[in-house]
Amino acid sequence: MKTFVVGDIHGRCAQLHTLLEMLPRDEQSDTLVLLGDLIDRGPDIPGVVEHVFSLCQQNAERVICLRGNHEQMLLDFLDEENLIWIEQATGSDRTFVQYTQTPLAIRLEADFATARDRLAKEIPAEQIEFFRHLPSYHEDEFAIYVHAGLENGKHPRESSADALMWTRDMEFFKSYRGKPCVFGHTPTAFLPLRGRLGRHGIYVFRSAIGIDTGYNQNSPLSCLSLPDFTLYQAFADGGTTTHQITTFIPESLKKMQQRAATSGQG
Predict the structure, then answer these.
(1) Extents of the domains making up the chain
(2) Which tens digit of pLDDT belongs to each residue from 109-141?
């Protein structure tokens, strides 16, 4: 059994399809974990959401999608909790126009309600419900999986959902030594250099593993396979790479590999 973990997708549907086709995944025994942030910024957000929704519906036991902060911001906007999602930096304008075929234009106070109503009408109801029921973390024998990180190094069940979706805790990035934790949210280019050298774009330091390899024209969409530590990457131009990471692996992760190898022999 393996677990394949995919970083932040952000509407890159073609890259997601290419990446999933690369994976030597047994759909009956291997688990696919997507770390959230399906929406915003990218060229085919509805395509990503529909495909991931379908994967989860077809094999709920073996396909797990977590809720990212972008899904949470969208829900908060639809529920009139706050307006953060509307800010330009989120890339929400791409989600809005792709679902509604209308540019997002906010000039008056009344425009917020108009945009909210239009979006709620155009996003399929089952997709909104899908977002509402996404878990904030997943755990298996290999690792803990969260969107953003852990709250003061605590287990996710002892952490707030907001922290699991939003945290950018430098202490976690540099000092976490618990059960291996795979996270996205913070592009690895912004994580400490020491954990990035020789890792082919991902971040590995002590027990923290970051796989959000960024969002721009040259950024790969990345998937890490556990426990073998194979890294699969798909690029916007259709190119792909595969790396077997064998160096710089922290001791806690080496022990994980050893346990898996022993279990496989038995």
Answers:
(1) 3-67+137-265
(2) 999 999 999 999 999 999 999 999 999 999 999
Q: What is the CA radius of gyration of the chain?
A: 18
* 110-122 and 69-78 helices, crossing angle to 10°: 110
**Residue 223 and residue 145 in contact, taking contact as beta carbons nearer than 8 Å:** no
Distance between CA atoms of residues 74 and 95, nearest Å: 10
Global confidence as pTM: 0.95
Answer left, alpha or beta for residue 152, where phi above 0 means left and psi between -120 and 50 means alpha: left
Contact between 9 and 42 under an 8 Å Cβ cutoff? The reply is: yes
- List, for residues 62-81, the tens digit of each pLDDT value: 999 999 999 999 999 999 99
Cα-Cα end-to-end distance for the chain:
13
**CATH superfamily, with its number, for domain 3-67+137-265:** Metallo-dependent phosphatases (3.60.21.10)
Contact assessment for residue 84 and residue 73, using Cβ atoms and an 8 Å cutoff: yes
Tell me: the pLDDT tens digits for 189-199?
Answer: 999 999 998 88
Query: Please, which residues have CB within 8 angstroms of residue 82's CB and are 6 or more apart in sequence?
Result: 73, 76
